[in-house]
């Protein structure tokens, strides 16, 4: 038992002794979902950063698992305090930069902590437009401290640090897109369980869930411009989706991913998880109505089940490092 | 037992006889959450309407409750079919107009059905911008059939019809807004359970849930321009929120509601339900850090509990008709 | 402007003056979703009450809406404090009793507050069974402080008080039930949009959402035994669902409601909202497989759309008081 | 281009040619969330299996990504059909057994498909008790076809098959448990961001998310009794939680995991993800009320942030194979 282990408190009893041939594997702990909002004021013009920060730490943690001795444990409450204090001390330049500050702190300031993984979700706000020239209301001059939440995709990032090298995997989720034409699906395998009809003009809709890994991994190298990279990658994903004439969602996915790898030299790998949000042509023949896609059709948007297409696209020579599962289903 | 009641099918047994002094009160039935997507094509330019339609019908329905006789029941499956068929037949000019078509059909086409209530949620889509002049990708000319879901507020409407007069209550929900200054809270009641400190510069954030009732109620009168009314009402709500120097969320609510009544002659009544999404200044003093709102502060965004402020604002002389509860909590 | 209204603070500006013909209608405010957990210890045996308490107060509140003057406002933060303090001071005998304590306090202790509405959700916990006679683990004697959350229905109540009389509407939600036979549906209206086939042996499944109003309304009268009433009403609902041979969900609903009114003299009225969770027989004929319900069939459980059947059942002579909408769709 | 690739259909255009140095990495596709309900009848006694089945297939899929050629693609619609047909053909003995049937089918019946991963969620139903001896209602004899959904944990399994060997990882999620005493937390690291007070008698609550890997991997070996294994593992997790005197959630986690490894010879590895659902003692001193845990205290149940404790426990010599992430936060 480690000398640092606190003993002798009256009332402290310990759990069962560790039974036979059992070992502790990978473990991590931290504080999840710290909801940090940082306002920056430039005179009357305010800026907002709205993050959900989750921290997971690993290291020399056998003791606390085996006997409950907490001498190596930085409490998750302290982790939370650190997140909020750093938001004030260092500001939030970008989600990635903020995560790097935090990860470096945890790994370098506490000896038992060997690695840190910071996950951040960012919610985007737009300014509310005011100042109609002809408004007759009091206060209708331009307002620079009022925001409406964008509600489109959630931006994400994950920073991993082991004291030596960095891994930054950024991404987005819940970005719902739809092409109302230029999508076909035919020429597939037919077996005894096939009933699907081939389609030559269908709706293709999905909720983009993407994660991309940056090449940057060392303090020696120049960091990417995180916000610009994000904006560009998002634009490439949207445009590749829109501009691809699709014969399968796999093909569209590949076009989206390869355009990012091709266009962003700072990105080595991207994983996309694309649910096929089925929109079925409704059969209106029983009611004497044609319902052809060419004429502008009516579709039924289904919830479940849905196709789920997932793939990693990477730069030749890069090692695949983003985990396969972006979803649990 | 009504003559229309189907009897004699082998295997049909009936439930318990109606016990003593029990009566049937208000009742309604229908098909909820029909997810209708309608694409309209103008050459290569497509338009999309994406609705979630719920229908509730009432009328002469004693029989089906008391004995299970379905002679007066239009099946909810038929209701669903009707929704999809009408989307093709009549198109979807606006959510309100579509609901009016449906309500009129159900009440006028089936004798036992006396009233119809149609509730619609509408999801908004924006076009994906393509055609960078300098794109080197195939197909990068302007695309007019690709959409990204807005993700901001959900537009709602409720159409009620009894064969004679109409009630249209439109609205929106989940529109999240935030003022990072120009909000105070002080001068309130202090009692033995008071610990709150007065605030002279706080964040005010809420998720706007609004429903407004149109004056229009008769086929004799000219209908409002539903889409334009919606856009204007939304704009007034946002701008009143942004432009009000707030001493309480109640005051902000009243400014939002009264600006709508004052600006939109076609609206007689509006109900607002505004959760006070608390953003608390984090106490960073233990870490030697000041955290004053004037310098750009760090806030903790809390989930629960939250203040909930609700009120109806109406035109003098109008009768309050929107139900009090827009939420169940 | 009320003399109690605080003026003259530097920096305080007020919103726009109230424009023309606008009036304030029904309004209420409070703190929603206070998550209170109360442990009671009887030696080593512990008991748990786990509530989500929402308070809405109304009264003399014109001032705060029109000018932001808070002199009549008991802050929602104080409301929260009161909820927690009362849980300690009075304990939580039942959700209903706790709500009655709170409502009486708010209405009687603050002059501007005229009515209080307390809504409570209760989550049920069961004991974890331990003490296998033959366990070889340390501490494996009977444990009386360990619980697992039931996860079945959420129990609800709503207490309304205006200083004179009480209204108690209790209920439950999210209680999912299914009959795998003894359900038919036929003999309904056929029109041009009908495609549904009649069914003589179908699954009937629903998620019970019920609210019942107690007769009790005066401090003069003896209160019901709230916990026993709840348990009995729940049992009647479940058994009536199970024991009814159903020709329509309306009939089943009526049997459920009327059994409660018939069996519980303390209940005057019940409202049921029953989604028809459709389970469709899957067509397996293309694969050479019969799929008849009589042989034990395979069903597809659909999410949307769903039938939604709602009705109030009441004691003859009682006035209908439970609002029509238990859902927003 | 593969000879199997369908060309020449009028109107088919293809996306951009694959740009430079981009390669396709791991990829998989399938139909997610097939909601299958299977009723089995033994005379008047019915049994129910209620599953949510997700299928992911991998194999020789370069073509469909690069050019949209679907010759190697078994459509996700066919996958769905197969799931429903197999539920009828083979029944659903257990989630694991059903997944094994499906995985074997996909891998062995289609040459391009090399591996299959089947994920299943199972929802549990209990019988509704009827037959009060003294009921006066019609039909109140014992009913054997009426169910109420348990609502406690969701049972999960994942079957992976590559044509040669099997990996079965079963588990559960959303099982919420709470100890109202026998939990302490002290002796931890203090740094400049520490404000937490040590606790000697606190509530310990968590929502158990567990996945365990069975030793079984070959058709040569005897399969575990899946349902019995599940029930026993669940019991061990609950009892270890209840019976551990906890000095940290890590210690409790280790006790839960090691008891499973120690008790179930068929399980080689278990991963637990335990959010620390914080219940804070409410400070009631300002109101003159003591709130000590020893006397039965009032707690505030917080939503976010929360501690998150995760670890793998495995049999000595086993290889860690369950992925680290059971959550995305």
TrEMBL record, chains A, B, C, D:
Q: Which GO terms describe its biological process?
A: purine nucleobase metabolic process; urate catabolic process
Binding of urate: at which residues? 76-77, 185, 202, 250, 276
On whether Oxidoreductase is a keyword of this UniProt record, the answer is yes
Catalysed reaction per UniProt? urate + O2 + H2O = 5-hydroxyisourate + H2O2
| Keywords for the protein's UniProt record, in alphabetical order | Oxidoreductase, Purine metabolism
Q: Which residues bind 5-hydroxyisourate?
A: 76-77, 185, 202, 250, 276
A GO molecular-function annotation: urate oxidase activity
Name of this protein: Uricase
Q: In which pathway does it act?
A: Purine metabolism; urate degradation; (S)-allantoin from urate: step 1/3
Which InterPro entries has this protein been placed in?
A: Uricase
Purpose of the protein:
Catalyzes the oxidation of uric acid to 5-hydroxyisourate, which is further processed to form (S)-allantoin.
Residue positions of the active site: 31, 76, 278
Under which EC number(s) is this enzyme classified? 1.7.3.3
UniProt cross-references to Pfam families, sorted A to Z = Uricase (PF01014)
Q: Where does O2 bind?
A: 76, 276
Q: Which family does it belong to?
A: Belongs to the uricase family.
């Amino acid at each position: 038992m480690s000398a640092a282990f606190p003993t002798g408190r009256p009332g402290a009893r310990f759990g069962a002794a560790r039974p036979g041939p059992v070992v502790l594997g990978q473990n991590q702990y931290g504080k999840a979902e710290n909801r940090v909002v940082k306002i920056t004021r430039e005179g009357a013009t305010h800026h907002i950063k709205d993050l959900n920060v989750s921290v997971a730490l690993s290291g020399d943690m056998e003791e606390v698992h085996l006997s409950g001795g907490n001498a190596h444990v930085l409490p998750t409450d302290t982790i939370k305090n650190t997140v909020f204090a750093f938001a004030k001390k260092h500001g939030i330049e970008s989600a990635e930069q903020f995560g790097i500050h935090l990860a470096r702190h945890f790994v370098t300031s506490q000896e038992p902590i060997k690695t840190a993984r910071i996950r951040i979700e960012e919610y985007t706000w737009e300014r509310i437009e005011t100042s109609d020239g002809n408004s007759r209301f009091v206060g209708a001059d331009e307002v620079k401290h009022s925001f409406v939440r964008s509600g489109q995709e959630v931006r994400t990032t994950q920073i991993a640090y082991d004291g030596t090298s960095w891994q930054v995997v950024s991404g987005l989720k819940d970005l719902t897109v739809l092409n109302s034409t230029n999508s076909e699906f035919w020429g597939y395998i037919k077996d005894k369980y096939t009933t699907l009809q081939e389609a030559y003009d269908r709706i293709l809709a999905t909720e983009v869930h993407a994660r991309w890994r940056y090449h940057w991994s060392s303090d020696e190298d120049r960091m990417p411009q995180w916000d610009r990279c994000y904006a560009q990658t998002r634009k490439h994903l949207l445009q590749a989706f829109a501009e691809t004439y699709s014969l399968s969602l796999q093909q569209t996915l590949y076009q989206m991913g390869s355009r990012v790898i091709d266009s962003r030299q700072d990105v080595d790998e991207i994983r996309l998880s694309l649910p096929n949000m089925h929109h079925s042509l409704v059969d209106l023949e029983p009611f004497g109505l044609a319902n052809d896609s060419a004429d502008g059709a009516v579709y039924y948007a289904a919830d479940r089940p849905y196709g789920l297409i997932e793939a990693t696209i990477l730069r030749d020579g890069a090692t695949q490092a983003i985990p396969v599962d972006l979803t649990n289903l």
